Amino acid sequence: MEAVEINAGAWYLRALRDDDRLSDVPALRLLGVDDPERYVRQADAAWAADSGLTWAVCVPTTGELAAVIGVDSAGVTAGLAREEFAEALSAAVDPATRCAAALLGVAPTPLQAALPGR
Fold first, then answer.
1. What total number of domains does the chain contain?
2. Cα-Cα-Cα-Cα dihedral of 104, 108, 112, 116, to 10°?
3. Residue 118 above 90 pLDDT?
4. Has residue 1 been placed in a domain?
5. Alpha-carbon 26 to chain mean position
6. What are the tens digits of pLDDT across the range 41-95?
7. What is the mean pLDDT of the chain?
8. Mean pLDDT computed over 34-38
9. Looking at residue 115, what DSSP letter applies?
10. pLDDT band at 6 (very low <50, low <70, confident <90, very high)
11. How far from each other are the two terminal CA atoms of the chain, in whole angstroms?
12. Is residue 45 part of a domain?
């Protein structure tokens, strides 16, 4: 399926990106991702295969990645926030899990502090 964008009030959830207009690579490195370019490609592939949904939780005015959240096909919900953006991850849990439940037909677990898809 195509990635779904979600307006979560003060935050905006969108697919991870690494292109000529916007790159989440620097922020993913801050979250400890060793190969962020590959991570973005894997997240895109999971969306396409209906095997996992991963979103960048962003500042709406800049598109800057504040956190990442995802739900896999088993319903495991995982996410991490950059140090100054814990509230972004908290705000994303409900809309992300409701969307994943509807799109994947799973019962999402409580949030685990981990990188989605790992």
1. 1
2. 0
3. no
4. no
5. 15
6. 999 999 999 999 999 999 999 999 999 999 999 999 999 999 999 999 999 999 9
7. 96
8. 97
9. -
10. very high
11. 20
12. yes
Query: Within a domain: residue 118?
Result: no
Are 27 and 82 spatial neighbours (Cβ–Cβ below 8 Å)?
Answer: yes
Domain presence at residue 84: yes
**Most distant CA atoms of the chain, gap in Å:** 36
**Count of residues making up the chain:** 118
The domain in which residue 41 lies consists of: 6-113
The CATH code of the domain that includes 64 is 3.40.630.30
Q: What average pLDDT does range 27-36 have in this prediction?
A: 97
DSSP state of 111: P
| Both tokens assigned to 76 | 């495991």
* Percent of the chain whose predicted confidence (pLDDT) is above 70: 100
Query: Which 3 state secondary structure label does DSSP give 53?
Result: strand
Residue (of 65, 24, 71) closest to 47 by Cα position = 71
95 and 13 in contact (C-beta within 8 Å)?
Answer: yes
**Strand order in 52-58's β-sheet?**
6-8, 11-14, 52-58, 65-72, 77-81, 112-113
